[in-house]
Amino acid sequence: MITLHHLEYSQSFRILWLLEELGTEYELKLYNRNADNNLAPDAYKALSPLGTAPVITDENGLVLAESNAVIDYILDQHPDSPLRPAGGSPERADYLFWFHASIGSMMPMQFMDGIFTVLQKRSPFFLRPVISAVLGQAQKLLVQPRMTTILDRLEHDLARHKWLAGDQLTAADITMSYCMASAKQRGFVNDSRPGCMRWLEQMEATPSYQSAMAKDGRETMVFSFD
């Protein structure tokens, strides 16, 4: 049986949602962040050399990190699941794009934006105007154009079908959940992005998402940089 080692306010929520959607048996172990620095506790870091969430263990001795690797490993055990469209299907290309864009494009941009924000807020008071001006310009040049491009693509695809890879929920939607919730939290997604807002609403209304949130025990899955 798979054990999900779930760190609060982390990307491991996606694995929790995946397991709930599959309806498979699993064990859940919850970990809180250290109160002094918001980092994972030592017990969590000891699970994997990366010390990052998510991490799963399996009764065969496997220890596996990295979100998409974990998702693929779990779906390999459920080959008939519609959560991963088959090769050659009309949904496959969109599925692959969004499955990997979540980690390859969207999260790095938001992480960079979060770091810029933290540096502005925590810079010395007498230097803050200069530092804020420089970092604010960097956000405009490095983050906003790329986020605009990917959100435009999201709006385009969500105008064509209900979910990211067609009219049925897939693992691409699950892996994008943290990115999209974070994008809304950071102000990238708002009422000017009706397709994205609709997607977030239907995500939150999905029974498996709701049961995952209940087991998570928190009002949001997203860690705030602010």
UniProtKB/TrEMBL annotation:
Pfam families: GST_C (PF00043), GST_N_2 (PF13409). PANTHER family: GLUTATHIONE S-TRANSFERASE 1, GLUTATHIONE S-TRANSFERASE-RELATED. This is Glutathione S-transferase. The keyword Transferase applies. GO terms for molecular function: transferase activity. The keyword RNA-binding does not apply. Residues 1-82 form the GST N-terminal domain. InterPro entries: Glutathione-S-Trfase_C-like, Glutathione-S-Trfase_C_sf, Glutathione_S-Trfase, Glutathione_S-Trfase_N, GST_C, Thioredoxin-like_sf. It comes from Parasphingorhabdus marina DSM 22363. Residues 88-223 form the GST C-terminal domain. Keywords: Transferase.
